[in-house]
Amino acid sequence: SFSLLPLILLLCLSAQAVDRSNFKTCDQSAFCKRQRELKPGQSPYRALLDTLELSDSRLTLQLINDNNKVRLLLELYRLQGNITRVKINELKPLKPRYEVPDVLLSDPITEALSVVAQDENSLVLSLGGKDQRLIVSAQPFRLDIVEGPQVLMSLNSRGLLAFEHLRARKDTISQKISSTVGSMWDSLKKEEDKPGMWEETFKSHTDSKPNGPSSISLDFSLPGVEHVYGIPEHTVFGKILDFVQVSSEVPQTDVRWISESGLIDVFIMLGPKPADVFIQYASLTGTQTHRKRKCHPFSCCSLSGPQTTFHSKTHARSDKEITCGFFLNDNFVYQQKATADGLILRSGGVQRPFVLTRAFFAGSQRYGAVWTGDNAAEWGHLKISIPMCLSLGLVGISFCGADVGGFFKHPSAELLVRWYQAGAYQPFFRAHAHIDTPRREPWLFGSENTALIRESIRQRYALLPYWYQLFYNTHRTGQPVMRPLWVEYPDDVATFSIEDEYLIGKDLLVHPVTDEGATGVTAYLPGKGEVWYDVHTFQKHDGDQSLYIPVTMSSIPVFQRGGSIICRKDRVRRSSSCMENDPYTLYVALSSQGSAEGELYIDDFHTFSFEEAKQFVHRHLSFSANTLSSRNLAPDSQFSTASWIEKIVIFGGSQPSSVTLKNADGTESALEFEFDSTLAVLTLRKPGVNAAADWTVVLR
User: Fold this and answer.
1) Which pLDDT score, from 0 to 100, does residue 306 have?
2) What pLDDT score was predicted for residue 250?
3) Distance from C-alpha of 381 to C-alpha of 516, rounded to nearest angstrom
4) What letters, b where the CB count within 10 A reaches 16 and e where it falls short, cover 119-135?
5) Which end of the chain is more exposed for a tag (fewer CB within 10 A), N or C?
6) Helix count (H) and strand count (E) of the chain?
7) Checking phi first, is residue 351 left (phi over 0); if not, alpha (psi -120 to 50) or beta?
8) Are 562 and 532 in contact (CB under 8 A)?
C-alpha cells in the first residue's frame, strides 16, 4: 500500500472541491511506475532448495534473482489457528529494512512444519488439518497452498515478485561497498539507475531518497474465485478472468500488492469459514474496543475547530465529557494509541476511552473508532460509505461511519434525510460539516424533514441495546458489527457482489436508499427456507429472493431475520444517559420452524469492570415449542440492573388461548396479550421481570 503524506487541501468555497492535481498518480510516482512496468512472465527468482533449514518454529531457504544474483531470505511459518505466514527479506541488506512495528498483539504462537515430499525442483510441506499443503516450486520460485486436489492460492504464479535491494549510489559505490560484497559490482553495473530512484520532484517539492530504491511487490492468484472484497480504490489490482488448469477449467482472480519500501510479510488465514477468519485475524491484531454509553453516537458536535480550545487547565482536566472527545490527527496509530492510553491513565485505569481517528492501520481497532474522512454532500459519497465501512469491518475496524450530510458542500433536504436514515444504521453515527458550509441543523430544513430526521435518530436510539451487545461480541470474537451478506451466507453466490445492503450482526438486514428521487429499491433477502420480517410493518417475506420495495421519504428498508430475538428500548428519551434504567422490549421473529434466539448484554456502560471484575449481565433468549425463556450465559458474573422487560412482541406466530409467566422462584402469573391476526403479531404486555433474572413465558 502507498504511504500517504498529510496534504493541505486548498478549498474553493464556491465549489468546495478537492484539486485532484495535488494527488500523485502512479505514473507520477517513480516506484509505482517502475513496478507497473514489470509485466507478467517468467520470474527471475529461483529457490535454492539446498539452503533449506527447518526448525520447530519455521522453515527458511534462500531465493536468488538470476538477473542480478542478489539473494533473499524466505521464511515460512505455520501459526496456531490455521494461519500461514510468508516472509521475504534481503539475505544481507546494507542496513535493516523497515518492518512495521506494534501491529501484532504479540509474537504469534508457531506450530511445527513438516516436509512430506521433496525432489530437485519442489518441496511439499504439511499445514495441518484437511490435507492442506504448501508447495514450494524452485524454478521459477512459486508457492501454492492446496487442500487435497484444490489450489486455494498461488504466490508469484505470474512472476511479479519484485524486490529492489538496498544499494549504494554508483558515484560512491567504491567507498560504500565493502570487499566482502565487492563481487556484486559486475551485476550492479548492469542495472542502470532509473529516474526517481534517488530523488524525485512533484510540483515544487523534491523528495530525496538516501536509501535509494527499495520497493517490493508480490502477486497472488486465487483459482476458482470471481469475487474479491475490500480492495481499495488506489491499490494496484487487476481482476483477470483467465483460466488455469487445475482439475478442470476454472475462473481465476489475480491480485498484486506493491509497496514503496519495507519487506514482504504476509499472513494467510485459511478459515475455512468467514467467522474463523475473523477469529484468526483478531488473534494477530486484536479486537474492537467495547464502546461506552456516553459515546453512543448520534453526535451533532465536532471538536476539530476553534471550539476545541480550552481556556482553563482546570476545565480541561475536570470536564468529564472530554473523555468522549474526538481525535483528528493524521499521524495515525501512535497518537491515537497515546490518546487512548492517556484517557485511561487520567481516570486511574477505570474509564473506557473514546478516541476517533480518520488515519489508521491494522490494529487501530484496539484504540477507538474511525470515520471515512472528509466526504462531500453528494449521492455518490453516501452510496460509497457502505462498502467503505463493510471493508473496514472485515479487517477488524468495526466502529466505522461517515459524516452524515457530507463534510464539504451543502446537501439538499432529500440527501440530508436519506443520509440520516442510512447513518442511523451504521456503527458510528455523526453529523459533521466544514466550518464554512451553510448551517444544516435538522430543524433548518422544514418541519416535515425535521420529523423524518427525528424518526431516524429515534430508531437509532431504540436499537442501542442491540448495538451494544454486538460491540461486546466483536470485542470478544472479532466478528464485524456491520457485515456483508456473504459473511453469514458464504454458500450463496448471489451475495458475493452486493454492496448496497448489509447486515447488522446477523439479524438485521438494511438497504438504505442512496439514489436521488428513488421511488423503490430492490433488496436481496438471503437464506433458502428462511423468512425475513419488515421491522416497520411486520410483514413476512421468504428468503432467497430479490424483493422490490416501494419507498417514500419516510422509508428505511430494514428487515429482521426469522429465528432471531432483538432487544430494544422503545421509550423516547433526550439522551442515552436517561435510558440507562429504561425497560426492554423483546422483538421475537420466528423462523419457519417456529423458533428464535438472541442475546441481551448489560454492564455499567463506562468502565473496564466488565473485564476486570466480571461486572455484567449476559443472557441467552430462546423461543421454542411455544416457550420463551431467558438463561444466564455468564454464571460467574456479578452485576445488578434496574432495567426490566416491559413488552414482548412475537412475529409469525399464532394466537394463544393463554400466556403464563414462570419466575425463577417458581411463582406463576397470567400475562395480558393482544394478537393481530392480519400480521400474525402477538404482543405480551408487562411481564415485569428483571432483565438479569431467569424466567419463562409459556404460550398455550
Assistant:
1) 35
2) 74
3) 12
4) eeebbbbbbbeeebbbb
5) C
6) 12, 41
7) beta
8) yes
205 plus 315 within the same structural domain: no
Distance CA(121)–CA(138), nearest Å, equals: 5
The reply to whether 51 falls in a domain is yes
Q: Any idea how long the chain is?
A: 700
H-assigned helices in 59-215: 173-176, 185-190
SS3 155: strand
The SS3 call for residue 159 is coil
Do 464 and 592 share a domain, yes or no?
no
Domain of 213, CATH number, reads 2.60.40
Domain count for the chain: 3
> Residue 332: its pLDDT value, please?
64
Within this chain, do residues 121 and 73 fall inside the same structural domain, yes or no? yes
Q: Across the strands, what pairs with 663?
A: 695
- The one-letter amino acid code at 197 reads M
Q: 185: domain range?
A: 1-270
Evaluate if pTM is beyond 0.90. Answer: no
With a CB cutoff of 8 Å and minimum separation 6, the contacts of 474 are 287, 288, 398, 480, 481
Q: Are 87 and 77 in contact (CB under 8 A)?
A: yes
User: Are 428 and 399 spatial neighbours (Cβ–Cβ below 8 Å)?
Assistant: yes
Q: Is the peptide bond before 140 cis (omega within 30 degrees of 0)?
A: yes
Which DSSP state fits 389? H
Residue 89 three-state SS: strand
Can you give the pLDDT at residue 697?
98
Look at residue 547 and tell me if it is in a domain.
no
Q: What's at 469, amino acid-wise?
A: Q
* Residue 532: inside a domain: no
Block means of pLDDT (10 residues each) for the chain, length 700 residues? Answer: 32 50 91 93 95 95 97 98 97 95 94 94 89 96 95 96 94 52 49 88 93 96 86 39 44 91 96 95 91 47 35 40 42 82 95 90 92 95 96 95 96 98 97 95 97 98 98 96 98 96 99 98 98 98 98 97 99 95 99 98 96 96 98 95 98 97 96 97 97 98
Q: Which residues pair with 255 in a beta bridge?
A: 220, 237
Question: Whole-angstrom Cα distance, residue 241 to residue 223?
Answer: 10
**Are 155 and 149 spatial neighbours (Cβ–Cβ below 8 Å)?**
no
* Judgement on whether residues 262 and 300 belong to the same structural domain of the protein: no
Local structure of 2: helix, strand or coil: coil
DSSP string spanning 41-83? S--SEEEEEEEEEE-SS-EEEEEEETTT--EEEEEEEEETTTE
Identify the residue whose cell numbers are 487435497: 148
Other beta carbons less than 10 A from residue 428's beta carbon = 24
Cis peptide before 465 (omega within 30 of 0): no
C-alpha cell belonging to residue 690: 428483571
Residues 294 and 176 in one domain: no
**Amino acid letter for position 322:** I
CA distances from 410 to 12, 40, 445, 466, 477 (A): 14, 46, 12, 33, 40
Check which CATH number belongs to the domain holding 576 and give it.
2.60.40.1180
Task: Examine the domain organization and report whether 196 and 105 are in the same domain.
Answer: yes
Q: Which of 431, 579, 430, 558 lies closest to 504, judged by CA?
A: 558
**Same-domain check for residues 331 and 449:** yes
Catalogue the E-assigned strands of 191-248: 199-202, 205-208, 216-223, 242-245
CB 113 within 8 A of CB 86: no
| Residues 583, 471 within the same domain | no
Residue 197 forms part of a structural domain: yes
Distance CA 114, CA 131 (A): 13
